[in-house]
Amino acid sequence: MDLLDDTPTPPGNSPEYTVSELSGAVKRVIEGEFGLVRVRGEVGRVSRPASGHLYFDLKDDRSVIAAISWKGQVAKMQVRPDEGMEVIATGRMTTFPGQSKYQLIVEDVAPAGAGALMAMLEKRRAALQAEGLFDAAAKQPLPYLPRVIGVVTSPSGAVIRDILHRLRDRFPCHVLIWPVAVQGKDCAPQVAAAIRGFNALEAGGPVPRPDVLIVARGGGSLEDLWGFNEEIVVRAAAESRIPLISAVGHETDTTLIDHAADRRAPTPTAAAEMAVPVRLELLAAVDALGARLSRALAQGVALRGQRLRDLARALPRLETLLATPSQRLDTATGRLAGGLSLAVSRKRGGYERQAGRLSATTLAGLVARRREALARRAEALDARLARRRDLWHGQFDKWASRLAPSLARLVTQAGVKITEQRKGLHAVSVRLDKAPAQRLTDLARRLEALDRTRQTLGYAQTLRRGYAVVRGDGEVVTSRAAAEKAQALEVEFHDGRLALGGPAAKAAPRKGGGTKPPTQGSLF
């Protein structure tokens, strides 16, 4: 037999326990030692299931104890625990063998003051609110139809699935997911970085810039949601230029990001409903508006048509409106021929009077009178210049005695001035001599132009173009009835006049018993 034996020594007399036996033994020890205890702590996560029982946590800065109040005990409580309250719970300790955990069965709860976490949270909220991070005036409106939605949440939880499912049902759009930790020490820096990262995206860049952001997380205790109460997250949400929806926790959970966000949603699903409208409802609304527009247009056209018909019945008939103007037109048409003939006669008389006044003798007399007038004006001008010259000589003599040194200079200047005036007078005299001849030439040209106009407008030129003037009994005939009544007709052409037969020619019989047309009718 070896002195050193490596064979394991079998256990001694230590008993072997089953798991249930050991759990039962621990349960009996704990219940025996802590049959009735009073525990002071802050209420953490509170759960109220449909069974009526109450589940909550009691905690301090280092430890957490699970606490339970059964339905009958909850009904007897005068003060029911709420998250954040500091309470004194009275009950007994026990274990839950199914999960290897111990818990406190609470029979009564008494308030002990505000909890430390809630006090710190309230202090931080008041400080941030004083900075204006929660002001309602800084809230941005949500876009009605966002093209891109950015979601800041955990990619593996049920929250993102609920959001995507609700967006797909209501209005499918492009969704960008920024994965972050939603619990623990990494939660706050990652959420703040995600919000600032979405805001740093450029519009029109390779990664589309979201039109709205959703920060989402499921429910949990105050400790689980504490990352969304951190100052870095609140400041990032308040500085976001993209509208932000906070969907952290359930409806009863409130975090500081809810105050800084532009909108707060009670649940992540509600955040998706806030972000987009229902596409089918929009289509139905568009269809309804289109139908209303069509009905409004049809009704407007019908009302205006009826109004037009009513107004048309009040208007007079077209024949009534045109009767008086038509009568005035007929009257004016009947007077037009006579008026034109009278106007031509007046114009011809005026031209003849002007031609008589514009004869060569008249123009020569006018030129002679103008020449005599110019001669008289020239003589008067010479006399006036002489008188002025004598006056100037008298003044020069008067000033000569006083201005002897300057006499020669003044005489020279006066002589120069007189010379210049004489030159001007000579130029005027030359122009006066030429003016009658030029005036006579202009009047002769005007007379020739008027004579050409007279000849052009005279009826003689009209006769040269193939027309003729018919006279009956010495008067101009302008109608067939007047020609038939005339005793004798005379036709004037450009090269002479032709006399036609008398009244017997109008009634010459035709072969076959008819009446032969007048001889002169065949000439027109």
What do these coordinates show?
Helix 4 packs parallel to helix 8 and helix 11 (about 360-400) packs antiparallel against helix 12. With about 525 residues, the chain is of the alpha/beta class. The chain is built from 14 helices and 14 strands. A hairpin with a 4-residue loop joins strand 4 and strand 5. About 15% of the residues are buried. The model is unreliable at about 1-5 and about 505-524 (pLDDT under 50). The protein is elongated, with a radius of gyration of 64 Å. The protein has a 5-stranded mixed barrel with strand order 1-2-3-5-4. A 5-stranded parallel sheet has the order 7-6-8-9-10, with helices on both faces.
In short:
Helices cover 51% and strands 17% of the residues.
